[in-house]
Amino acid sequence: MPSNSYRNEVALIEACLAGQPEAWKQFTMQYRRLIRTTVARIRCSYQSASADTDDLESHIYQRLLEDDRRRIRAWQGRARFSTYLVQVTRNLALD
User: Fold this and answer.
1) 10-22, pLDDT tens digit by residue?
2) Are 60 and 71 a contacting pair, CB within 8 Å?
3) How many Cβ atoms from other residues are within 10 Å of residue 22's Cβ?
4) Is a pLDDT exceeding 70 seen at residue 48?
5) End-to-end distance of the chain based on CA atoms, in angstroms?
6) How far is CA 5 from the centre of its chain?
7) How far apart are CA 22 and CA 42, in angstroms?
8) DSSP assigned state of 78
9) 21, 32, 54, 59: which has the highest count of C-beta atoms within 10 A?
């Protein structure tokens, strides 16, 4: 049986996919630290001085929303969304 936090995560993602503005605001508040930390680790690991963390973070959000939120829709729910988001963020930051 899924935990409450998993169900809350699923509900938030479904609301974001439905285009609810408040859901996106909550999404950014909930996952901002995770995205920012992941981006900072990538920058540090690869000695990437060419991109500012704020710029990369903005780029990640833009890419998450493009193509009708394709990357968010790709989450299959087999793991927590936060786990999936770290991998997506990592891949996008490396691009």
Assistant:
1) 999 999 999 999 9
2) no
3) 9
4) no
5) 37
6) 17
7) 29
8) S
9) 59
